[in-house]
Structures are given as C-alpha cells and as structure tokens.
Amino acid sequence: MLRLEPRTNAPWWLGIATPVMAVLATMIAGGLLFALMGFDPVAAIRTIFWDPLFGQAAAYSRPQLLVKAGPLILIACGLAIGFRAGIWNIGAEGQYIVGGICGAAVALAAYPAEGAWIFPAMVMAGAAGGWAWGMIPAVLRNWFGASEILVSLMLVYVAQRLAAWMAFGPMRNPEGFGMPGSRNLQQYPPAANPELIAGTGIHWGVIAAAVAVVVTWVLMTRHIRGFHIRVAGFAPRAARFAGVRPEALVAFCLGLSGALAGMAGLFEAAGPGGQITDSFGSGYGFTAIIVAFLGRLHPLGILLAGLLLALTYIGGELAQLMLSLPAATVQVFQGMLLFFLLAFDTLGRFRIRWGRPGEARA
To answer: How far apart are CA 165 and CA 278, in angstroms?
Structure first.
C-alpha cells in the first residue's frame, strides 16, 4: 500500500528548491503538451519565457512586465498574510472588481472637475470597497461560522454581475454611443494613473506593490500582529492562550487582503484598463493565489513569483501572436504551475512509503 509519512526533519533548502522544481517541471510538461498539439516545444517555451525579456519584442514587453506584476504582487501580499494565519480568502478577484468600481465611481462623480484630491480619493475609495467586500465573509464566519472559502469565492460572481450592471447602467458613458462601459479614465487627467517614468511601465500601482512588500515584511517580522498571525497559523489553540482573539484576526486578515485587492483594481481601472466594462477583472485575484504560494508566503518570494507569473502573461500573448498558440496557453501554464507546486510541496513534507501503516520502517 502506498502511503505518505510526515518528514520529521526536512532540510532547510527544500523550501527554496520546491518552487524552482515546480517551474522546471511546468516547462517540461508544457513543452510536451505543445509537442502533442503540433507546435515546436522549444520555440514555444523560448517565446514565453525568453523573448519577452531578450527577444525582438523586449522593448515593448519589459515595461509590461511591471504593469502585469504590480497587481499580482499587491494582491498576493494581502492574501499571504491571511494564509499564514489559516484564513483562506479565495475571493480576491471579487474584491479587486469592487475596488475598481468604487474608485472609478469617485472619478465619474467628480467629472469634469479638476483637483489634486481626486486620485487620492479614488485610491481610498478603492481600498474601502475591497475592504467592505472582504468583510462580508469575515462577518459571516465570525457570527455564523460560515466558510470564508465558499463565501469569498461566491462573492466573485456577484462582483462580476455588479460590474456588468454598472457598465450597462449607472456608469455607462453618456458619450459612448450606447456602448457598455464607463468613461475612459485615462482621458480624464485628474483620475488617470499614467506611466510615471517613460518606458519603464512604473505607475502608482507598481509603487504601491513595492511598498506592500516592505510593509508586509515589517508586519510579519517586527510587529506583534505578525506574531499573532504566525502563532494562529501554526497552533490555533496556543494562539488563544496567548491572548489572540480569532474573530479580530479574521476581520483583520480578510479586511486587509480585501483593501489591497481593491487598490489593485482601482490602479488597473485608472491605468492599463482605463474603464469599467462588463468584463472588468482579468483573473489577477485568482492568479495572485498562485503567486502567494509560489513565493512561499514570504514578501521577497512573492515579489519574484509575481514577476514570473507576469512573464507568463506577456509570453503567452507573444506566443499567440507569433506561433498562433491557443489563447488558453497562460491558464494552462498557471494551472500546471500550481499543480506541480502542490505536488513538490507535498513530497517535501512527506515521504512516500510502501506497506501498511502498522508495519515497521524498512
């Protein structure tokens, strides 16, 4: 009988090697998949992972790397804090959408006024909207014992319908000839989130992501709240004896992750996205879950993982244009990456043993 036996003394380097092995296994499995589909696997892997950085399209792709990585890192930092405490926010995509809607609503309400206060007000509204959406599963868990996993996930679909209603109704551009979607915020200077340094892709969302990495590290390593989070994740019962209030921790983690996701949605709506449409929401909230785990729930790891996942987005788009690969290439790669990460992580924490559970070790 095949069984898994917990490792009593796993080597320290295994936690670092696991994400690397998962990435390599994803490349190999992806290459085999492309070969079965009739594509050159070497050309496909090179186009996805090499060309965006060093190929002919690098001048365009490199700035886009930060544009794509910014929201992933910002959302993943919030998710990682909750995951470390054993609080599972799976609905960051919904908080991202609601944050974008709330932030854009401030700009559209102020239009066509001018003023330096507009964009900061949009950022605060985006964070507040994401926080409020994240607090729904927090309240339901604390008061009724509902699963935050199911509630937060189901709220994603509610947020998607809310975005569609806004695009076809209250937020529809009155000068848009009846087409769904809000005004283009990039064409409204006080509400725009432009590139701060030409040719780099850096906008305020990228700056916020960098700040989130630093703040998350300080919180988890230098603050009493971070200690409470770590204790709650490792030993929930011990956390209670240490004076940690589980209800307060749930509200803090879900509220914080929701606020960061909402800010990411606002930066996208005011920047690369430009407007609220019926399809607002690019899957960043779900991909950020992979980023958090690939980065081992550590801020530095999240930074590197966010850049890697952003590379798959850009490389997948290049592969569609240059090799005519299917549009689902990115989703396939991300799904493989999560699968291999979980598989190697399991092998890192357990040994594979043959025989019955009661048998002595060989």
So the answer is: 7
